[in-house]
Design brief:
Number of helices: 8
Shape: globular
CATH architecture: 3-Layer(aba) Sandwich
Strand content: 5-15%
CATH topology: Rossmann fold
CATH class: Alpha Beta
Helix content: 40-55%
Structural class: alpha/beta
Strand order of the largest sheet: 3-2-1-4-5
Number of domains: 1
Largest sheet: 5 strands, parallel
Radius of gyration: 17 Å
Length: 209
C-alpha cells in the first residue's frame, strides 16, 4: 500500500505512471468534476461514479446527474450511477443532523459515498477509486484521504490521493463552469446545508434591512 501525503508527491506519482489505469472517480456534480477530469484524463481511463444519497431534494439530485452526464459526454467519459437511497444518508448521519459544515456529519457523508465507490470499484474491476469532493474549500481533504486509504485496506482496491483544490483547482473549476455553462449550485447538497444556506440568506437580508 503506497500512501501519498502531499499534492507534490501526487503530481510525481502521476508522472511516473507507465500506462493508463482504470479509475472510478466519484463525483458530486459537474463543476467539481470539471477541473478534476481535465487534470486526470491524460493519466487514467476515467469513469465517473455518481452516488450521492445526501442530495436534497430529489429534483436537485436529478439536475446534477443530468448536468454531469452532459459534461462527460463532451469528453467521451462514461457515467455510472446507482439508485438514489436517501435513507442510507439519514442512517449514516443519525444523531449528527444539527452539526454544521466540516463537522462529523460531513465525515459520515464522505464515508458513505466513498464506501459505495470502493465497493463498485472492486465489483467492476477498476484499478483505482477516488473522489472529486476535495476540490471544494468547504470539504476536509484530510478526512477524505483518511477514509479512502482505510477503504483501500478494507476492500483490497487502490485509492487515489485526492486534494484537487490544490494548484488553483477550485478557481479553475469556476472558470470551466463559465466556459461550459455548467449549473453551479449554491449549497453542498444535503437538506441541512440547504437549511443553513437559507438561514444565512435570511440573516443577511435582515442585516441589510
Amino acid at each position: 500500500m503506497v500512501v501519498i501525503e502531499s499534492y507534490n508527491d501526487f503530481l510525481k506519482f502521476l508522472d511516473k505512471l507507465e500506462y493508463k489505469p482504470k479509475l472510478l472517480l466519484h463525483a458530486c456534480c459537474a463543476p467539481c468534476s470539471s477541473h478534476t477530469i481535465l487534470l486526470l484524463k491524460n493519466y487514467f481511463d476515467i469513469s465517473i461514479f455518481y452516488s450521492n444519497d445526501n442530495i436534497y431534494p430529489y429534483s436537485e439530485y436529478e439536475l446534477r446527474l443530468n448536468e454531469i452526464i452532459n459534461f462527460c459526454n463532451i469528453f467521451g467519459i462514461n457515467v455510472i450511477y446507482d439508485d438514489y437511497n436517501d435513507e442510507d444518508y439519514y442512517n449514516a448521519i443519525k444523531g449528527l443532523e444539527n452539526l454544521g459544515e466540516k463537522s462529523k456529519r460531513c465525515y459520515k457523508c464522505y464515508e458513505l459515498r466513498l464506501n459505495k465507490c470502493a465497493i463498485k470499484c472492486k465489483e467492476l474491476g477498476f484499478d483505482y477509486f477516488s473522489t472529486t469532493l476535495s476540490i471544494s474549500p468547504y470539504k476536509v481533504e484530510r478526512w477524505i484521504n483518511e477514509i479512502g486509504y482505510r477503504l483501500e485496506e478494507q476492500y483490497g482496491v487502490k485509492y487515489l490521493y485526492s486534494n484537487f483544490k490544490k494548484g488553483d483547482g477550485y478557481k479553475h473549476s469556476i472558470e470551466l463552469s463559465k466556459e461550459y455553462g455548467l449549473y453551479r449550485q449554491d449549497y453542498c447538497g444535503c437538506k441541512y446545508s440547504l437549511e443553513e444556506r437559507n438561514c444565512h440568506d435570511r440573516a443577511k437580508e435582515e442585516n441589510q434591512g
